Amino acid sequence: MTGLFVLFIYVGIFVGSFFVVTKVIDRATAKDFTSLKTVTFGDESAVRPNRIAGVLSILTIFLIWGMFTGSSLLPKFLHAPGPFVGTLEFTYTAEADGQRDDGTVTVVIYPRDSETEAPEVDPGDGFAKNDSSAIAKWRTGLVRVDANDEIKKKDGAEVVAINGQPIARGETVKIENGTVTLSDKGTPNLAPYRGWQMEPLYLPAPETVWSRTLQVVSEGFRSFTLWEHLGYSLFRVIAGFLLGALVGIPLGYAMGLSDWFRGWFDPIVEFMRPVPPLALIPLVIIWFGIGETGKIILLFLAALWIMAIASRSGVSGVNISKVHAAYSLGASKWQIMRHVIVPNSLPEIFTGARVAMGVCWGTVVAAELVAAEQGAGMMIMVASRFQNTDIVILGIILIGVIGFGIDMLMRWAERLLVPWKGKA
Amino acid sequence: MSGLSLQDISMRFDLPNGSAVQALENVSLDLKPGELMSVLGPSGCGKTTLLNIVAGFLAQTSGKLVLNDHEIHGPDAERGMVFQKGALFEWMSVRDNVGFGPSMKGMPRGEKAKIVDHLLDVVGLQDFKEKAVYELSGGMQQRVALARCLANDPDVILMDEPLGALDALTREKMQSLVLKLWKETGKTIILITHSVEEALLLGERLIVMAPRPGRIHKEYRLPFAELGVGADLREVKKHPEFGPKRDEILAMIWDMEEEIMGRTEEAS
Lengths: 424, 268
Description:
The complex is a heterodimer of chains A (424) and B (268).
Chain A: H1 2-25, H2 51-67, E1 86-96, E2 99-110, E3 131-136, E4 141-142, E5 158-162, E6 165-166, E7 172-175, E8 178-182, E9 188-192, H3 206-219, H4 226-257, H5 259-272, H6 281-288, H7 292-316, H8 320-328, H9 333-370, H10 376-385, H11 389-417
Parallel strand pairs in A: 2-3
Antiparallel strand pairs in A: 1-2, 1-5, 4-9, 5-6, 7-8, 8-9
Helix pairs in contact in A: 1-2, 3-11, 4-5, 4-7, 4-9, 4-10, 6-7, 7-9, 8-9, 9-10, 9-11, 10-11
Chain B: E1 4-14, E2 20-31, E3 36-40, H1 47-55, E4 62-67, E5 70-71, E6 79-82, H2 94-98, H3 100-105, H4 109-123, H5 138-151, E7 156-160, H6 168-185, E8 188-192, H7 196-202, E9 205-210, E10 215-221, H8 224-228, H9 233-236, H10 242-267
Parallel strand pairs in B: 3-8, 3-9, 6-7, 7-8
Antiparallel strand pairs in B: 1-2, 1-4, 4-5, 9-10
């Protein structure tokens, strides 16, 4: 229900800002060549990401996050309705031996960080006495109304109405700021109004995650600093990837240059390629344990096939005219390897390396989720066991940022080192 | 005997379905040093196969190839090749592309730089020395290819439709350049082309090949290449013999194409 509401708000902001930005603000901006194209629908080159949309997109995520977590970063009027906090009253009618009597129940709903005692109330008259109780916000509570009554449930007393509305076991009655359900055993169960906000257990507010970030940065997590956790993950990825490239690239070259190698390794490579590295985790743990060796071997295997296939297709992709030209210019086999085949395959190898780094990063997190002493994956796994949702979210954000950073770095290296990519 | 000599070259290869293709049958040719020969023919007549055999990329099934008194086996720097396109090295600058052959031979830097500079002057690309080849236009790229081939000082230059991918205007300029280079360097050149006009303009000798099996159908000796050196090629085309020759060869190739079409229709 809340989810649907969030979706509506999101779509609303998406559509609303679209009209505001494109129809009102963008009208006034300067016209470059692309903006003069009249055919834009279907012309991919005319579709450029709208910068304003990008910024709004990120702001919207934080806005909705804040709205539904009651974030202190947002003004109160933007908050989704929160859970009821305060004092709540309802009356119950008990029936025993053919006679009825009313009692009032006063319940204090308190914020979780300030536990409150049930208030003192005057018991009142009749056989059904007034009661009181205290419930933490977001929680529900059984109210044992008969506990202080003169005729108790075991003596035959039965709750038959709440706030004057008749009720039977298993039924629910709405009261102000909540509902009361009569349990199967005849005890009223009070569920105060929950509101639309998420419990911090499920989704902490942005500022909670931020303060937890600062705390983890300064104090570390599980006897390792944050940088050690991330560093271990990165180290595993880089070590595994480098080993994979070190073996995979020559293997790919050999497969691209020799019948025998191609024939020998094709079945292995083609079989291993579709096996997700995650499926190898159990076997790697059985063989190598949960230490560094196992993880690096897993990542080595993740990178190996990708790099082998990338360099193989880099070799196969060389225009035969280039090789012929080099031969008739007097180049030896070794010179052709060094000056034609290797540079010609570099763009493909870089593409493969980008894919491999992405896969390795995903695999290392998964492997650390399964078993590790330290690492980004281990951090979020352990945090989730202790219901530290803020650390889980922090970990997910960091994993995303690092994955993105790796990709950016690879693209940058690619532009720098193989400027001829796509220019043949 | 110096020069290039093709003696009874035949090329026959098996297809997976069991039949065989006779790509070339008993092709014999003698080229004197410094001759420029253009090769014409309908598609599938084996001209590219012939060129690849001379270059050493394919081995003929029978016959002998002799260049300057030694038999040809495999590619070698003595036979340079200019391709239609895509044969330049994108990862090298114009200068490094042109200097590729000398570098492979291990020529000292200074000597190599002199050759490269000279050739870039000849093809008019001195200002583009440091550029990447993919930054150049198609015509400029072919000039680089010509210069790269010449830098190696080969005995024979093989050209496989080197101007085929260029626009008409650039093509005309490049034809003049080819003639100029031929005259200045005195290289033996075999040029494959699809354009009858180009074959007439550039070929001192012109052979027309016929398909199935690939063979030499007719050979001409033409005055136009000599006339075209240093002259306006548009004037050469006004030569009284030019028009009739062009029409004759066009009709000849046209007939061959018709015949191929007819045969495929019968077969289907």
